[in-house]
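Lab meeting notes turned into a lecture example. A postdoc, R.K., suggested we walk through two folding results consecutively so the class can see how the record format repeats. The first protein's sequence and structure tokens come next.
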Amino acid sequence: MTQRFCNPVATHFGPGSLEELPRIIGGAKVVVVTFPEARSLGLVKKLEDLLGEQLGYVIENVHPNPDVAQLAAMYEHFWQNADACDTVVALGGGSAIDTAKALIVGTAGGSFDELLALLASGKPFTPSKIKTLIAIPTTAGTGSEVTPWATIWDAAKQKKYSLHLDCTWPKAAIVDPELMLTLPRSITVSTGLDALSHALESIWNVNANPISDTFAISAIHEIMACLPLLAKELDNKALRSSMALAAMKAGLAFSNTKTALAHSISYEMTLRHGLPHGIACSFTLPLVLGMAWGECPDRDAVLQQAFNCDRKTAVARLRDFLHQLEVRTEFSDYGVSGEEAQEMVQHAMQGARGKNFIGAKAAVALT
């Protein structure tokens, strides 16, 4: 059967690749979207020096898990001042890049409520106006720089919205490992585990193909070898480069498959229990791996390549890997009862990402 793989993002990788930004944007006017600490870390100054008079202004109050309560005013201010830029440069982790993806999708009236209504419908739509996006990740994990996906949260209503349009693919991604050297251990680990989840979820996925598998297998090997070492040696430039490349490969893998059950469960864990995304989507990986292996021979072959061992050994190895990074792997470790866990898994299976999982019939085994 013919397989298709498409990724339109022009990717620039390597230490010092941030210097490519002026060439990539050409003469465009720019707004930067970033996180609060970026200025104190000297990252905003780097962009100011590179962009000069092309920089209109900086949005620097992006917080983890972009929520509608914060995004509404930001979105409407952005479109009220739409002439200030042609291009949005997102600098940060997944939250900064997801926020930028939401901002670049313009509605007829420039109202955030209009955007939410379109997302809530679940139907494809064509934006009334758009801006170009350049993504510059400062973490090695999200993969958002090479995907069209963005998640918007509504904590008050315990809901999430998924945004993905042709225009939310970044025009270009700049993956510069030097921007990741200041990451603390906790974020290094959680974002690295997010990348591992992306790679695994792209394998036990109904949308998997040989090209996505190639990226995923390579990412799994590199992350499992590199992340424990990096967690102990945060200023190691070679390890930072290895993790940045592995995370990008994982992003390329799931850019074509989307995620699956572990991510679907993670949304509930984040909404109900406030668990950070990287931990929420990775703590169930050993359990989901055990469910997936045995469901489909061709997927088993790919998982065997990823772990170089049998199912039982792979599950134990993955659980030990997470424990080594001080990540607990049971629902009860996070205050979730067996009854709630069962309900959560069944709910997750009905979600769009849960339906991508190859082991739907084995879902009851998770709890």
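The second example is placed directly after the first for contrast:
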Amino acid sequence: MKGKALKYIIMLATISIAGVFLIQFALVRYSYRLSENQFTESASVALKEVAWQIMLATGTTANFDSITPVEVINDNTYLVNVGVAFDDELLVPNLVEQLKRHVIYYDFEYAIFDPTEEQMEEGVFMTTGGETQSSDYDFPVNESYTNYFAIHFPDRSAFFNTRLSIWYFLTGLLVIVVFFFGYTLSVIIRQRQLSEVQKNFINNLTHELKTPISSIALASQVINDKDIVKEPKRLLNYARIIQDQNARLSKNVEKVLNLASLEKSRIHLNREEIKLADFVNDTIEVFKQSNNGQKSNISFHFHPNNPVVSADKFHLANLVSNILENAVKYCEKDPEISIILAQDKNTYQLSFADNGIGIPREHRKKIFKKFYRVPTGNVHNVKGFGLGLDYVYKIVKAHNWKIRVDENSNGGSTFTLTIPA
């Protein structure tokens, strides 16, 4: 799938998902308002019936049609104008009965207005189980009413949860669908990236293998000439070419085989006590004997007195060599590498600072992935497979160490290895 097509798919998918969520939100909001209206209507009918029953019990129903029994203060609070004197014994049984008849099974608070004191009596909180206690709710009053009571529903969430449960379920289902859609899309993107990386790896591998093979074939063809024995210097030169290209070919094959062995099984570490400063010094000396090492200037400074760490000598040497090799390969001037070993609290910090071309911030976390190489457009002046830093990361992880990459004042990169003391 082409890059532009994938971008359009992601953009359209994002717009579609946003639209679905907006519609879902609008529907849930509408359902919530509808549930509020249903509750208010049910509560108003029930309270109107309470007023009627009280008036019926006192024999004063004649003026029922001339009053407005229920005043909605807000969604949770109501005033009920009865028009006749009444008390708790008459109010509570009717109140409980009518609320149940209209399927309002929720805790409530109520208070009766005392016309003598011209204020509300002490409020009462009543649970669905019939238990009562004092209420501290500040009930509203109405100066135009004489005999009335106020009722307050502190928590109506159960009412809404019952009616909106299907919407909650559908919303949850939508979230799950969106999650799996997003996950599938991320897998597609990762697979596409991996495909690109693997394609670049195969191209690099083909080039790295074909070049020495072609050189060896050419040199062998020249050596096959009978007259070459008459030119011993030329013969020696082509023999050296075959030897060098064979070593290059063997090194590349060894990298690929090492990658395969690391993929098949976990890295087995032969840990032993190592004097870190001496070990790094020895590794530097070995590196200086290589083609890359001969053209580099490496300095090593350490502040702790040759600390001892537990590590695998073979893998640690390869780790240091890989970092040094990259520092030389990715440098467009005379390579300068500064290695510093320092102690920070309970860790040792082994840093490698170079004066190379540097690594852009957006690529620093990706360079430790297998096959990944920092894009350089159509210029491929540095050969490689993108395996070196992947190997470094695997060794660091196997030792339970940490590694990070930063920029430095020379414009290059600084690799810092953190080792527990």
